[in-house]
Design a protein that fits this description.
single chain, 418 residues, alpha+beta
Length: 418
Amino acid sequence: MTMSVEQAGLTLVDPKAYAEETRLHEACAVLRGESPVHWVDGRPSYSPFWVITRRADIMEIEKNHQVFRNSPRPILAPAAEDARQLEQGQMLRTLIHMDDPEHRALRPIAADWFRPKTLRALRESVNQLARRHVDLMAERGEECDFAADVAVQYPLQVILSLLGLPESDFPRMLKLTQEIFGGDDPERRRGETPEEHLAVILDFFAYFQALINDRRANPTDDLASAIANARVDGEHLNDLDAAGYFVIIATAGHDTTSSTIAGGMQALLQHPDQLDLLRQQPELMQGAVEEMIRWTTPVKAFMRTAVADHQIGGVTIKQGQRVLLMYPSGNRDETAFDRPFTFDITRGPNRHIAFGAGVHFCLGAQLARMETQALFTELLPRLQYAEISGPVTGVASTFVSGLKQLPLRYRMTAPAPA
């Protein structure tokens, strides 16, 4: 049975749809074709909003940050959560919650750490971590859960090492990240109540407050110290903003890359012609990584609020109304991509929008590309054979989601002598 436009719109407020790639893309295709700027009335669970599904419209809104603002609600959340935050104030404020001039003042604190010059200095340590995780995959024998054992662990170590956190704290950071991003997923969330969700945020704050106090008392040369000791207009960030800065770096800094790596591996195995091509022509790796990012689009959506009437795609968005930018849909837009449902590592130009655009373009985009390229550059020459050996499952989340399980059976060669 063909999905109606109304059903397609309501699919986007069902977290389970984001773990079911086929259903999500079917809904987006219906909307792109029949109602690319579509009003979704998800009441009583979700407050109404416009969903934007075409790449050009998404880009127009992204670049018009004067009219379309991140505050007060930058992500899709149930109406009860929206009401709670408006009543109690924003507990968790990160860069994605901020607009200019505040965003412009705070973004540079970490921006220098993700510029090409700085990342070039990190390349060898990233390569070493990639090699280490490929070695660990080989040591496991001939089976592993690639999502949980490799794709999650490797980027986690990269970003938390950059922050300067001790390795003993990595499991705690992983659990908190999965709880905060997986609040809609029964296997990830801490509990059912708003109080239990709030407890996750408070745990983050407690951890990072202790870190801030330590780095201010004992400055070091890591990113954590740079954030803790940053000054805006001569003053340190207040405790909530500093902790929020740590939260976005420590969580989005690895979870999105994990989704790209796991989904990229799945795509290569499901498209063996592309895997063979990449083996034969490793110089295609950079383009392959861009296609993996387009294909997986780990950040599914951001929300903006209009502060003035504005016309998009022939529809007037009224002041105060919200718009949901559907990045997976923009990255499958038939008017923007040739054969958008084909995984093609030679695609070029690949103008995907997985990292957003405008002033909120992803801070860690270049690091994510470097990590993904390093992992597959290490892995593919040693991977003699691989197949998906069990059920593949995804995270149910309307914000950041990717594969939760990717069981593999494989054969690998031993590492080359040092």
